[in-house]
What we know:
It is a single chain. By secondary structure, the chain is α/β, with parallel strands linked by helices. It is built from six helices and eight strands. Helices cover about 40% and strands about 20% of the residues. It has a six-stranded mixed sheet, sandwiched between helices. It has a two-stranded antiparallel sheet with strand order 5-8. Strand 2 (about 55), helix 3 and strand 3 (about 80) form a beta-alpha-beta unit. Helix 2 (about 30-45) crosses helix 3 (about 60-75) and helix 5 packs across helix 6 (about 155-165).
Amino acid sequence: MTLLTLIRHGETDWNRNGLIQGSTDIPLNDTGRAQAREAGMLLAERREDDTPIVVVSSDLSRAAETADIIAEVLGVAAPHRYPGLRERSYGEAEGVDAVEFRERWGQWSTAQVPGAEPWPDVRDRALRAIRTAVDDARRATAPRAPEVVAVAHGALIRQVIRHATSDELPAEGERLPNGSAHTFLIERERLRLLSYVGAAV
């Protein structure tokens, strides 16, 4: 049994300006760095025992720096990067805002954007990367079971939540805030959602 916490990276300038990032490598801004520190402090406050914590992340800089800050706050080893935790590639939609997106491709949930990674592929990739990261963490802390903190991206985390809830959550119109934490229990290969944070769009 392993506790997994998925954290959305802190804010970037593109987040602040409502632009779609996808696989474009945009760095954190100062607000994002503060959100990362806050996430790390909340994780530190909730620790009730000496369970080892392993921090990992996507290899995109906004997630990697968020993870580095969290690991520093927690006083744990430098995070390992997993490219499989990267954000969905949005193809031609990267760098555009919501208004332009709707004008060019219509509804978000049904849009066919040239060059975008298919949603089923995002989910499969995310689950594979999580399995690998958790297996690596278990080996590194054996015989003790670790808590794994993985810093990733909004669309990818949504797909993991949807997988764990048979596509019931997050609710339509909810977004996952920058720096938010979403907790799962991994029992054998099953993911069970314990808590998540959603906000109205």
